Amino acid sequence: MSNVLLSKLSSELADLDGQVSQIDQQISQLRRKKAELIQKKQALERKIEMKTNEDSDVVLDRWDQDSFPWSDEANQILKNKFRLEKFRPLQSAAINAVMSKEDAIVILSTGGGKSLCYQLPALLAKGLTLVISPLVSLVEDQIMQLQKLGIDAASLNANTPKDEAKRVEQAITKGSTELRLLYVTPEKLAKSKRMMNQLEKSLGVGYLKLIAIDEVHCCSQWGHDFRTDYSFLNVLKRQFKGVPILGLTATATSNVLDDVKKMLGIPVAIVFRAGFNRANLNYKVLTKPGSEDECVEKIVRTIKRKFSGKTGIIYCLSRNDCEKLAKSLKANGIRAKHYHAYMEPVDRSAAHQKWVSGEIQVIVATVAFGMGIDKPDVRFVIHHSLPKSIENYYQESGRAGRDGLPATCILYYRMSDIFKQSSMIQQEQTGIANLYNMVRYASDTVTCRRVKLAEHFEEAWEPSWCQKQCDVCEKSSNSPGTATEDVSKEAVVVINIIEENLSSAKDGSGRITGNKLLDLLSKKLKGRRTKDFCEKLIVHLLLESYLQEDFHYTVYSVISYVVVGLKWRVYNRKDEIPMTLDNTKKGRAEENNRKRKAAVTSSDEEVDVGDDDDMPTNRSNLSILLTHLSRVDDDRMDTEEVEQRSSTAFRPLSVKCGVFGAQDGSGYAEFGNTRVLAQILGPDGDGKWEEDHAKVVVTLKGVENETSVAEWRAELTSSASAVIFVNKYPGKVIEIEITVLSDDGGVLSTAITAMALALAHSGIEHMGLTASVHVAMRPNGDYITDPSTSESSGILGGVTFAFVPNLDQTTCVDLYGRIPLKAARPLLEFARQRAITIVPAIHKAIVNSVKERKL
Predict the structure, then answer these.
(1) Are 164 and 137 in contact (CB under 8 A)?
(2) How confident is the model over 492-519, as a mean pLDDT?
(3) What is the pLDDT of residue 348?
(4) How far is CA 91 from CA 11, 39, 104, 112, 398, in A?
(5) Are the C-beta atoms of residues 746 and 774 closer than 8 Å to each other?
(6) What is the rounded distance in angstroms from the CA atom of residue 799 to the CA atom of residue 819?
(7) What segment(s) does the record annotate as region Disordered (predicted)?
(8) 727: number of Cβ within 10 Å
(9) What are the residue ranges spanned by the domains of the chain?
(10) In whole angstroms, what is the distance from residue 794 CA to residue 614 CA?
(11) Strands, E assignment, 366-467
(12) The domain 483-576: what is its CATH number?
C-alpha cells in the first residue's frame, strides 16, 4: 500500500474519530439538558397538582356545609348516637353527597373514619344501607360496635344462624323494620342469586337507600389488592338504578381511581381525597440484619427500650415467620401472639381480642390482620419483611397512632426479601411493578420518605414539611450528602458472572438466584467494594431493567432467578450507568484504612449494634459478644495510646453495697457520690400472683427527667437479675421501688446493682448477680465512665463490661451506638482495663453482702 493511500486513510480515520468525539460531547450535553427539562417538568407537575388540589377544595366547599335539609339531624345523630363531638375531615362532605344521591369515592387514610361516611347516612335515610366488605371477622367486629350504640346492623354469611338469616331476609324484602346496615362479602353477592333477588325486592319497596363498597381499590386490576369477586360489582349500578354508590379506600392512585369508576359504572363520581400525610408518624427504614437471630435481637431491643409496655404490630411475610417471631419475642419476655389466615377462626378472634384488651402487647401477623381494626393507641408498627406494594405499606403502617399521638413505623429491608416477595406475587397483573416501587422507596437513602409517598400518591410535597419525621430527614442536617457514581464497570462484572454461570453449565442448570449472585459478586470485587455496595448495585440494576427476574415453577414452589435484562441488551458500552450513593457509604473497602486521627469523625465502617437512634441498649445483652469482639481483639491498642485516649478526668469510684438497715428485700449501692436504694414492695396490688406471665414492675423515685425514667425503667426490667426472676418464677409479678438518693453519674449501673441485691436479700435469686462498668465516647473522642443524664446527650455510643458468674470472668457484654470501627478498638481496650480494676471489686462487695445475709 502506497504511502499516499495510507496517509489518506489515516486522515479519514482521524476525521471520523473527530466526528465521534463531537457526537459524544453532544450526547453529554443532551443528557444534561434532559436532566434540566425533567426538573422543570417535575416542578410544573407539582404546580398542576397544587392547582388540582385547589379545584378539589372548591368541590369540597360545595359539600362541606351545614345548610342541607338533614344537617341538623346529622349533627344530632353524630353526638347522641355515635358519641362524637365533631366530624373529621371529609366525613361531612361525603355524607352530604350520598344523601343528595350522588355517587362518591372517599379516600381517607387508615383511622380517618371512613365507616362513619355510610353508617351515619344509614340512620339519616331511614332505610337499608348495603355494605360490601371483604373480611367476615372485621364485619362482625363492626356489627358488635354498632349494636353497642343501639344501631340494628346484621350480616349474611356462611356462619349466620338460620333464625338470624330469616329475620334479615324478611327485613330486606318488607322494609318495615329498624334494620339499617346489612354487611355482605363480594363473594356472597357474586354467588347468591337469592341475595340479589331479595335486594331487588328491597329496592322495589323503597327500602334500599345506599350501597357502600369498602376497600374499593380491590375492584381495580391496577390496584395492589385486586380480587376477582369484586369484578361482579359492575352489575350494581345497572341493577339498582337510582341508588348511590359510595366507594371507600385508604389508598388509590389516579389509574386505580379511573379503573374503579369505569368498572363500577360511576364515571362522574365525586372524589373526596384526604392528604396522604400522617404528621404524627415517624417513618424509618433500617437495614435488616443478615441472620434471623440478629434481626430478632434488634427487634427485641427496640421494643424493650423504646416501646416498653406499649402496643404494637409486627408484620411478617409468611405464617411460619409469624409463629417463629412470636415465639422468640415471648422467650425474651415480650407478651406476643401470632395471627394469620391459616389459624382457626376462634383462635384468630381470641388473639385479636387479647391484643385489643392489652393482655397481649404485640401481635405478630401477616397481611390477614389489620383492615378495620379499632385500636387507637398502637405506638409502633414494624415490618419484619418487605411489603408487596407502597399501598400495602402505607395502609399497614397507618395502623399506628390513630389517636393522633406520636408513633413509629419501622421497615426492615434487605435485598433477599425482594425475591421472596416477588415469587409470591409474580402472577398478579401489576405485582412486580408494585413491588419494585416499594423497593425504590426502601432502598432510597437520599429522598425524604414523605416525598416518596407523595410522588406515589400524586400529591405535592416539600421535604421541609416533613419536620424531620423520617430517618432520611433526621440525618440530613448532619449528612455529608450524596454522590452520583458511574457503575458501568461493576455492571459488566455482574453480567459476566450471570453469563459465565450459564455457559459453564452443560445441562442448562446455570441459572443464578439473587442471593447467589450477591455472593459471587462480593468475592469478585473483594478489596474494592463492600458487600453492602454489591447489594445496592444488584438492586439498582434490577430496578433500571439492566437485570430482570425469571421465574421457574416447580411442583412445590416458585423460584426467582436473575437474568440479563432488556435494557442491557440495547446498552451502549460507552454510556455511563449512574448510581446515587451516600458519601458516607460509597462502598470502597480501602476507605476503611484511613488514619486513626480521623476515626471519630470519618465515614469508615461503623460498629452499629444499637438501634438507629444511637441510644444505650440493654446492658445485659450477651449475645452480641461473639459477633463484635472478633472484630477488635485482633488489633489491640498499645498502652501509650490508651493512656492518651483516657486523658479526660474521671470521677473517683468507691464501691459500697449491701442491705439497707436490717430489712429483708432491700438493696443499697453507692458508686462514688451516687447512691441508690432498692426496696421490694411485694407482689402486685391485690396481693396475688398473676397466672399468665411473670414480670418485674419498677417504680423510680428521685429522677426528674421523664425520658430518663422511661429509659431506666426499661433497662432495669430487662437487666440480668430481672430476666432470671422472670424465667425462674413463671406466673409471678414483683414490684420494686428504686429511689435515687443522689446522682453524680453512673446511676443506672448503681440502680441495677441495688436492685439485684434487693432480689438476693429477699431470698429470690443471687446466682445472676453481676457488676458492670459503662464507658461512653463523646463526638470529640473523649471517654467518660458511667455518664450522668446530662452527660449522656450527644454521645456516639459506648461499651459495657461486666463480671459474668457463669463464665467466672469480667467480659464485654454490650456495644451500642454508631462508633467508627477504628475508634471502637481503643474504646474497648480502655474499658477492658478500667473494668478489670473496678468490676471485680464491685462483685466481691455483692458476694460478701449476700454471704452476710446467709442467702
Answers:
(1) no
(2) 85
(3) 84
(4) 78, 37, 12, 9, 19
(5) yes
(6) 10
(7) 588-614
(8) 13
(9) 64-273, 281-479, 483-576, 625-672+742-852
(10) 9
(11) 380-383, 407-413
(12) 1.10.10.10
135: Cβ contacts below 8 Å, ≥ 6 apart: 185, 371, 372
CA distance 785 to 157: 65
Among 628, 596, 605, 626, which Cα is nearest to 816's? 628
CA distance 375 to 354: 12
For the chain, the average pLDDT equals: 77
Question: Exposure pattern of 318-349 as b/e (b: 16+ CB <10 Å)?
Answer: ebebbbbbbebbbebbbbbbbbbeebeeeebe
State the Cα–Cα distance between residues 632 and 635, nearest whole angstrom: 6
| Candidates 3.40.50.300, 3.90.550.10, 2.40.37.20, 3.30.470.30; CATH matching 64-273 | 3.40.50.300
Contact assessment for residue 735 and residue 690, using Cβ atoms and an 8 Å cutoff: no
Residue 272's CB is within 10 A of a number of other CB atoms, namely: 24
* Of residues 344 and 730, more confidently modeled: 344
Cα maximum dimension of the chain:
115
**Same fold for the pair 64-273 and 483-576:** no
| Amino acid at position 198, single letter | Q
- Tens digit of each residue's pLDDT (9 = 90 or more) over 758-790: 776 665 544 445 566 777 887 777 777 766 555
Instruction: Scan for cell 474519530, then name that residue.
Output: 17
pTM of the entire predicted model: 0.60
The answer on pLDDT for 43 being more than 50 is yes
Q: For CA atoms 812, 814, 819, 820, give the dihedral sign.
A: positive
**Fold (topology level) of 281-479:** Rossmann fold (3.40.50)
Q: Radius of gyration over alpha carbons of the chain, in Å?
A: 32
Strand partners, 799: 775, 815
